[in-house]
Amino acid sequence: MRLTVRRALAVIVCAVVSVVIVINVGTLSAWRDGKRTPELPWDDATLRTAALAAAAVAPRDVRPLTYLLPPPADVGNHVLSYMPNPLAADVISIENDTSRLSQLLVWPHQSDSDRIPEQMNYAPRAKPSDAHLKTIYVQTGLKYWNVAAGRHVFQEQKCRVDTCRVTDSRHDAGDPAAVLFRNHYSAHAMTAFRRTPSQVWIWYQLECPYHSQWLGKMSGVFNWTATYRHDSDIVAPYERYQPYDARVLTLPLRRNFAANKTKKVAWFVSNCGSRNNRLGYATELGQHIQVDIYGSCGPKKCARRKHGECVKMLNVDYKFYLSFENSNCKDYITEKFFDTGLRNDIVPIVMGASKEDYTRAAPYYSFIHVDDFAGPAELAAYLRKLDANDTLYNEYFQWKGTGTFVNTYFWCRMCAMLHYPTKTKWYEDINDWWRGQGTCVKGKWSDGGDGAGLDVPY
């Protein structure tokens, strides 16, 4: 008797479901026994089918964003092998439609997001010619950027809009389209040449307001900002996590991340002074749960030259890590969270930006924010609860495999925005934008930010 196509598909689906059920039962048994779950023999096709089912979408041929989302080559212990990306699908559908590409929402007043994918994929209606290059004069010198003079960086990164060049030579710059100031500026540098009305002056800064230059005399000077803040004109985050599919927030785990870990909380820190009293908080937390402080501010040592061994120790021994910034400022989320926290097999406990800011920047359910607790004692009680329950602890790792950390292509986006037809804008009071009311707090964000300590030059 010949099998019909429908009957054959039904047999295949039943077989796949049976395998998944057996695997899940085995996984739960291993978790209950407190043992490390063995690697599961799932092939790419099965993984992609499961991911698509979770997203409730039909399989389709979707390429990743040209610059933003290359498919992950190795997902290690994570279930996901490949996920379609709705952003990619939209870009593909409009990549030959310059009228739609030119209408992407790319400026802070247009969208509350960081607009990085939109800026990266913007293209003017008419492709600029090589004869009309935009020159970017880097006032602080190219050596700080590790970029060579000329067009190399734009061509090497295959920018969608590559008709720009960079230089740090005042003589070579001529009448530049943009002048880029990094961190510091001086009156001499700003009066070194005549400024034309169409010239864009850009202020770049990755330090927080407490540790950056006073901008009180810069009213009406800068046109664009390039900082880690999501409301900057060109956002320059320390890291950026991009989901493969915004509809898929969690995935089944292939291992128990709590298995064999015998220690509770770790922290690597060398700067003992801070505006938010993070050391005091950590010390009080240590009165209620084990907190091992490594470096200049604690009794334990792990030399920086042995960074790999220190990270391995974190992954093997500890369940939690204090990803504490030195200041509680808007959107101020550094490598302490992304590199030491999310990239490792520990749960980061965060202090710095508000919970809303972390939620915007981080994968779903991937961190614990100190502001959710009345104080260190209440936080310690919650950590002890997670320590005693592997199922609850592992929920903080179900985001793994749902996305990847991406290159945000700062130079590509700057070049694209210089070709964007927009009216000239400037910051009437950039100092107020950067360090005004509510920008930073010394305590909890829920207590309100009054800009205390930011009303005088640093």
Walkthrough of the structure:
The chain is an alpha/beta fold and 458 residues long. Helices cover 30% and strands 13% of the residues. It contains 16 helices and 14 strands. It has helices at residues 5-32, 44-55, 86-94, 98-101, 116-120, 152-156, 170-173, 187-190, 278-285, 307-317, 335-342, 355-361, 376-388, 390-394, 410-418, 430-435; strands spanning 134-138, 164-167, 178-182, 200-205, 224-227, 241-243, 263-268, 291-294, 318-324, 328-329, 347-351, 368-369, 403-405, 440-441. The strands form 4 sheets. Strands 2-1-3-4-5 form a 5-stranded parallel beta sheet. α9 (278-285) crosses α13. The N and C termini lie far apart (85 Å). It is a single-pass type II membrane protein. The chain crosses the membrane at residues 9-31. Its EC number is 2.4.1.-. Residues 144-238 form the Fucosyltransferase N-terminal domain. InterPro entries: Glyco_tran_10_C, Glyco_tran_10_N, Glyco_trans_10, GT10-like_C_sf.
Topology (elements, then pairings):
Blueprint: H1 5-32, H2 44-55, H3 86-94, H4 98-101, H5 116-120, E1 134-138, H6 152-156, E2 164-167, H7 170-173, E3 178-182, H8 187-190, E4 200-205, E5 224-227, E6 241-243, E7 263-268, H9 278-285, E8 291-294, H10 307-317, E9 318-324, E10 328-329, H11 335-342, E11 347-351, H12 355-361, E12 368-369, H13 376-388, H14 390-394, E13 403-405, H15 410-418, H16 430-435, E14 440-441
Parallel strand pairs: 1-2, 1-3, 3-4, 4-5, 7-8, 7-9, 9-11, 11-12
Antiparallel strand pairs: 6-13, 10-14
Helix pairs in contact: 9-13
